[in-house]
Amino acid sequence: MNHVSQIAFDGATGNCSLVPFVMKRAKGAKFVTSKAEEYQRYARQCVRIAPTFQDAETRATLLGQAQAWLRLAHLAQANRQIAELVVQLARQRIIVKHALDTGQRSEMAESLLDALEGSLRIFEKHRIFLLSCNGSSGALPPGDAASFVVRFKQIDSL
Q1: Is 96 within 8 Å of 110 (Cβ atoms)?
Q2: Which of 24, 87, 94, 121 sits at a 20 to 30 Å CA gap from 1?
Q3: Would you list the domain boundaries of the chain?
Q4: DSSP track, 84-119
Q5: Contact present, 22 and 55 (Cβ < 8 Å)
Q6: Within 10 A of 20 (CB to CB), how many other CB atoms are there?
Q7: At what angle do helices 142-156 and 56-101 cross, to 10 degrees?
Q8: Core vs surface per residue 84-102: b (16+ CB within 10 A) or e
Q9: Phi and psi of 23, rounded to 5°?
Q10: What is the pTM of this model?
């Protein structure tokens, strides 16, 4: 199995680092699988196998696990967005500094820097929200299981 390193945001420590993304083969082609895609695949597997169990509690537990995988997928997506913004911010700061150092106009570069900083703050708030949701619900009650499957399939088809 090949690995490709990309910059990613480590949610546990709040640091950017090089994180391996797994390269997989599908009919001879290579593609990169992100953690979010991997977690979404696990959620789909839980939803797919849940109906095969006769015990309602087991089905609800599997659907609750699917929800947990989806929460992790959302968190991984937010972490990846934050990491990409951190890299863009570093590049934009260099551009602004160069413009200022060489006496060039820097208004547009500074405006973009402000927009990127605002985006980073928003994604960091979103990440905090996702973390606050992570432990908030356990397994689904049997009555909620069917509605979750319907909502999951609608979201998954997008």
Answers
A1: yes
A2: 87
A3: 35-156
A4: HHHHHHHHHHHHHHHHHHTT---HHHHHHHHHHHHH
A5: no
A6: 12
A7: 40
A8: bbbeebeebeebbeebeee
A9: -95, 130
A10: 0.63
Measured CA to CA, the distance from residue 41 to residue 55 in angstroms comes to 23
- Cβ-based neighbour number of residue 150 at 10 Å: 10
Structure tokens at 154: 């609608």
Q: Tell me the pLDDT tens digit for each residue of 24-79.
A: 445 555 555 789 999 999 999 999 999 999 999 999 999 999 999 999 999 999 99
Cα angle, residue 97 at apex, residues 94 and 101 outer, rounded to 5°:
135
Three-class SS of residue 158?
coil
Enter the tokens of residue 84: 């990409």
Bridge partners (DSSP) listed for residue 5:
20
Residue-wise pLDDT for 75-102, tens only, equals 999 999 999 999 999 999 999 999 999 9
Rounded to 5°, angle at Cα 91 from 89 and 92? 65
Q: Lowest mean pLDDT of 20-24, 82-86, 117-121, 154-158, name the range.
A: 20-24
3: confidence class by pLDDT, cuts 50, 70, 90 = very low
